[in-house]
Write a structure and sequence with these properties.
alpha/beta; NAD(P)-bd_dom_sf; nucleotide binding; 363 residues; Dihydrodipicolinate Reductase, domain 2; Gfo/Idh/MocA family oxidoreductase; single chain; eight-stranded mixed β-sheet
Length: 363
């Protein structure tokens, strides 16, 4: 094992220790009063992680459904329940809003909350296109608030370790980033029931729902590619359900693969002339393994919380307190959206139902 590889791996371990010690600082313990928008499972995952932060207070929850908002309020101890976005925006006792509504709603809801003076943590993809994203950041800047994309991998200690360890791999040659997960809603679509996840007008699909994790990881590790070649396939009258992207970085290439129709347990891998790194899963990495050329594999010991959405809450609160700079996160979100725009253009993803003959159909 080369000294460069060992040095990079040791630095990666040290960075993870420092990364985990960074939390719960700033603001002198003052509460950050949150509201949530949305009622699906990701909201509860968020709350499970957020409540670990000593400054997090759940002030209110919002859903269009009175029944769902009452359930969330009771389950998580929110002080108020809203079915009106206008009333939520007008609430002076809310400092920040976590948005986990359908993708198509993100931009309008985020801008409404930011214009009301509230910081916004918005689920991925934060917008449907670069034009929307620009309007969102403009609203944040004009109103003096923080806007952050809730991309779990961007705040994971494992991603920080991978970024640190890349320098020990020598000249990079190839990377594979994959996220394939059988959607629990797919059987309902097969029965003729179209839920939000399979309704193209909701701004979802394989690319925007899970391929976004692969794209974001690519730009976090390597920056924007020089060129891409994208392919995808649609369910008849529905979303893009599988896709792939081949990205070029000069003498280095990256392949992305994503699907909502089957499970894959393939780890991500980055290969260089001195060795390789395996890590995963791409959406929320928990393990990193070094595979040196001619040497024995070594796994980086990571202590990552089971409720790993804590890390994005920690960084978001630090941003809102002015204890952390947000330029890097903004750059990653903008670069990822530019890649998503290019993929959508090549695959012809327009958030409309595609019938056979309008593109590569799966059935």
């Amino acid at each position: 094992m080369s000294k460069d590889v060992l040095r990079a791996f040791s630095l990666a371990k040290l960075r993870v220790i420092r990364y985990n010690l960074r939390g719960n600082k700033g603001g002198e313990g003052n509460p950050m009063r949150f509201a949530t928008i949305g009622s699906n499972f990701i909201v509860e995952n968020f709350l499970a992680g957020a409540r670990l932060h000593r400054e997090f207070v759940l002030e209110a929850v919002y859903s269009r459904s009175p029944e769902k908002v009452r359930r969330l309020c009771g389950a998580w101890g929110a002080k108020r329940a809203y079915t009106s976005l206008e009333a939520l925006a007008a609430d002076p006792d809310i400092d920040a809003v976590y948005i986990a509504s359908p993708n198509v709603c993100h931009a309008a809801q985020a801008i409404q909350m930011m214009r009301a003076g509230k910081h916004v943590l918005c689920e991925k993809p934060m917008a449907l296109c670069s034009e929307e994203l620009t309007r969102m950041y403009t609203a944040a800047d004009e109103n003096g608030v923080v806007l952050l994309e809730a991309m779990r991998s961007a705040h994971s200690p494992a991603t920080a370790a991978v970024r640190q360890a890349l320098g020990g791999l020598g000249t990079l040659r190839h990377a594979d980033l994959s996220y394939c997960q059988y959607s629990s809603r797919y059987p309902r679509w097969q029965q003729g029931v179209v839920l939000n996840a399979f309704d193209p007008s909701m701004g979802g699909g394989a690319l925007m729902d899970i391929g976004v994790y692969c794209v974001h990881m690519m730009v976090m590790l390597f920056g924007p590619p020089r060129a891409i070649e994208a392919k995808g396939a649609f369910l008849p009258g529905s979303i893009d359900a599988v896709g792939s992207v081949h990205a070029q970085y000069g003498g280095f290439t990256v392949d992305l693969r994503y699907s909502k129709l089957y499970d894959s347990h393939q780890l991500c891998e980055v290969a260089g002339e001195e060795g390789a790194l395996a890590f995963g899963p791409v959406g929320a990495p928990r393990m990193v393994r070094l595979l040196p050329r001619g040497g024995r594999p070594r796994e980086l010991g990571l202590e990552i919380l089971p409720q790993d959405m804590y890390y994005e809450v920690r960084d978001f609160i630090a941003l809102a307190r002015g204890a952390l700079g947000g330029a890097l996160y903004r750059r990653w979100s903008c670069q990822a959206m530019q890649v998503l725009d290019a993929v959508r253009a090549q695959v012809k993803i327009d958030f409309c139902g595609h019938m056979p003959g309008e593109g590569w159909s799966l059935l």
